[in-house]
Amino acid sequence: MPAPTTLGHVLLGLLHQQPRSGYDLRKVVVSTPMSLFSDSPGAIYPALRSLQKAGLIQVEQAARGGRRRSTFVPSARGRAAFVAWLRQPPSQDDITRLWPLLMLRLAFMDGLVAPADVTAFLARLQTGIDAHVVELEAFLAQHRALLPPAARLALESGIHDARGRSAWLTRARRQSSRSRRSPA
Amino acid sequence: MPAPTTLGHVLLGLLHQQPRSGYDLRKVVVSTPMSLFSDSPGAIYPALRSLQKAGLIQVEQAARGGRRRSTFVPSARGRAAFVAWLRQPPSQDDITRLWPLLMLRLAFMDGLVAPADVTAFLARLQTGIDAHVVELEAFLAQHRALLPPAARLALESGIHDARGRSAWLTRARRQSSRSRRSPA
DNA sequence: GATCACATGTAAGAAGTTACATGATTCT
DNA sequence: AGAATCATGTAACTTCTTACATGTGATC
Q1: pLDDT tens digits for chain A (184 residues)?
Q2: Using an 8 Å Cβ cutoff, are A59 and A71 in contact?
């Protein structure tokens, strides 16, 4: 059984929050602002199948009442696999190209990884995003003369994005460590 | 012949900048900060084939010297198709989920669409991104109590991203209209 | 009793990734 | 001669999308 796909991991994460059926998962995926995926049944049901076959989730409750419906929960191995996914250090490529997915991982971390790991995650993101800023600015400096206006705007947008994320990270990290000292 | 895929359109755009071979395109895709795709030959060569079969690009120069190598240029129909792609008004879904692709489209607009169209494009982006901010903030307001800290951080990151993009757009639009009045 | 929301699934196809294969040319 | 780079291509596989199919329970 191959490692779960991105969608598989996300479904696994949602099942950690509460037991859900495939139908529930589809609804969450559309109603959530983090929607990276479509709600196509042709993606979700096969993904659930594969998680089940890999032993990462189990049917918690089948067909209560008359209506056919099964809700899933993560197994112990599923929890371990999911936590491992969360703790996986982001690559530079993840940071420059898959930021929304990293934010989704962050959103799942509560209660599953230690606060110190969240801190480390955010720190890694910042060094990565800062490196990206440097890279983009070097590119701009090198090509400034050749870049026509719209292309330059697009590049500047990328720089602005990355700078904004770095600024957000400094605040988020401060806030995160503060709340760790004085929890609610 | 089906409509070109996203990768197909990007390749078409790169060929508008200058004639290139498949190998050249691979190099550009990796060396460019806008790299949304991998440089896998298994993606690029078939995409070129399909563009060629659709009559959107032509071989400009084959095997000069001894080494086998063909460079491609867009045909008239290819140019029309690409411009149509650029001018296509972004959907709300594009704006919330495919921003980097929209920036790539922006980067290709110079010389292919009228400056007024660039302006319209940027204006559309701003109404879309502002709507997204409103949506995310509504979600936050509604779920603030239930959201554990990391999940809340992730959501706030999305809001911060979108706000930053809106701010960038106001400046970019001002700059764009100014440079249109007094071109270099 | 017709229609809608619930709930799950499959079939066909598109598109990309990885990995391998194949040669030519240049460099040392 | 051997190695690295140039340059193109294919085969197998994975995954998602679209579209359809199927049936149940609730609602009007």
Answers
A1: 778 999 999 999 999 999 999 999 999 988 888 777 778 899 999 999 999 999 999 998 766 555 678 999 999 999 999 999 999 999 999 999 999 999 999 999 999 999 999 999 999 999 999 999 999 999 999 999 999 999 999 999 999 999 999 999 999 999 888 877 776 5
A2: yes
> What number of other Cβ atoms are within 10 A of residue A135's Cβ?
16
CB contact under 8 A, B168 and A150: no
E-strand stretches of chain B: 20-21, 57-62, 70-74
Evaluate whether A135 touches B33 at the Cβ level (below 8 Å). Answer: yes
The encoded tokens of residue B53 equal 């079969």
Query: At a CB cut-off of 8 Å and minimum separation 6, what does B90 contact?
Result: B102, B121, B124, B125, B128
Cα A136 from Cα B53, distance rounded (Å)? 36
- Which tokens sit at A14? 């949602």
Q: Which residues of A touch B (CB under 8 A)?
A: 33-36, 97, 100, 103-104, 106-111, 118, 135-136, 139, 148-151, 153-158, 160-161, 164-165, 168, 172, 175-176, 179
